[in-house]
Amino acid sequence: MSLPFYIVDVFTDKKYAGNQLAVFLEAENLSLEQMQTIAREINFAESTFITKLDLQNNSAEVKIFTPAQEMKFAGHPIIGTSWVLINEVFQHQPETITLHVPVGEIPIHQSEGLIWLQAAQPEFWEVFSKSDFSSFSNLTATDFDDQFPIQEVTTGSAFVMVPLKNKEALERLVLDKEKMDDWLKKHCKTSHRGLYFYCREDAKLMTRMFCVEHNQLVEDAATGSASTCLQAYLLKYDVPEIKLINHQGDFMGRPSQIYFNGKLADNQFEIQIGGKTQLVAKGDWEA
Question: What are 172-218's pLDDT values in tens digits?
C-alpha cells in the first residue's frame, strides 16, 4: 500500500526550524497499530494520518501519534496538517476548514500566512509545590516566579505549567529523567505527562517542554497543545486578554514562534494559537 505524505516544519517562518511533522493522506485502511509503527519509524515528535477527507465541506478526520502513543489533541500536528490540507489538498485554498480529532471538532482558519486553531475550554487541576522540583531538577527555590502557581492544565492534552523567574534559570535547566518520570507518574492525571517551563523577561515569553518517551528524556521544539494550556493559564492568573508570541526551541537549535490570541470573559476562555508552516518534502510512503 502506497500513501502520499508530506513533511513540514511547523511554527516557523523558515525551513529546518520549528517542529517537524509528517502528514499521511489516504490512511483510512491503516490499523492503529500500523499508524503507530509508521510514527515510530519516522520518529518525529508527532505524525498525523488523515482517515477521512470531505472535499465538499473542507473537513477531515485526523489521527495523531507520537512515536510512543496516540494523542487526543496536539497543536503543532493540527496546525501543520491544516496547512497541508489548505495549501496542497483542498481546492481554492479555503480560509476556514474543520478537523475532527479524538477530543472533538477543531475550527481552523488561515490568515496572512498563519494557520490558527481554537482550543477547547481548559481544566485546571492540581497545584504543586516548588519544593517537589528539588528532587529531579537543578532548580532552587529562588528560580521560581512565586506570583503564579505550578499547576497541571489541560485543553485536551495535559501539562504542568512551571513559572520561572528569568531566562537564565530556563536556559540552565537540567532534569533527572528517572526521578522526573517517577514524579510525573505519581502526580499527573493522564497517560500523557509533560512539564512546560516558562518565563517572561523583557516582555518576551520563552518556553521549554519536557516529557519521557521510550525511556528517553525528550525536549520538544514547539508544543501547540502545551501552548493552549499556557495561554489559558496566563488568561486566568495574569491578564484577561493576550496577544503575544511564545518562543520555544531556542535552546535546542530549532527556534519556533507560536502566536497567542486569547481572552477570558464571563468565565469563558477564547484560546487561539497560530503559526507559520514550511513545506520540506513530499512523496509516497510504502506501508
Answer: 999 999 999 999 999 998 888 999 999 998 889 999 999 999 899 99
**Helices 224-237 and 75-84: angle between axes, nearest 10 degrees:** 120
Q: For residues 47 and 80, what is the distance between their CA atoms, to the nearest angstrom?
A: 10
d(CA 40, CA 114): 29
The conformation of residue 51, written as its DSSP 8-state character, comes to: E
Kindly report the pTM of this predicted structure. 0.95
**Residue 263 to residue 77: CA distance in whole angstroms:** 24
Q: What is the pLDDT of residues 135-164, one digit of tens each?
A: 999 999 999 999 999 999 999 999 999 999
Element (H, E) at 40: helix 32-42
One-letter amino acid of 114 = L
Residue closest to 191 by CA, chosen among 270, 102, 108, 89: 102
Q: Which residues pair with 151 in a beta bridge?
A: 127, 161
Please identify which of the residues 46, 61, 70, 105 carries the catalytic annotation: 46
Q: Which run of H or E residues covers position 237?
A: helix 224-237
Alpha-carbon torsion 229, 234, 236, 242, what sign? negative
Owner of C-alpha cell 485502511: 29
Is 123 an active-site residue? no
Is beta strand 241-248 parallel, antiparallel or unpaired with respect to 204-213?
A: parallel
The full set of domains in the chain, from first to last, is: 2-119+275-286 (3.10.310.10), 123-273 (3.10.310.10)
Quick one: which H or E segment has residue 159? strand 158-163
Give ∠ CA 98-100-104 in degrees, rounded to 5.
Answer: 110
Residue of 176, 125, 179 lying closest to 150 (CA atoms): 125
176: number of Cβ within 10 Å? 14
**Residue written as grid cell 508570541:** 245
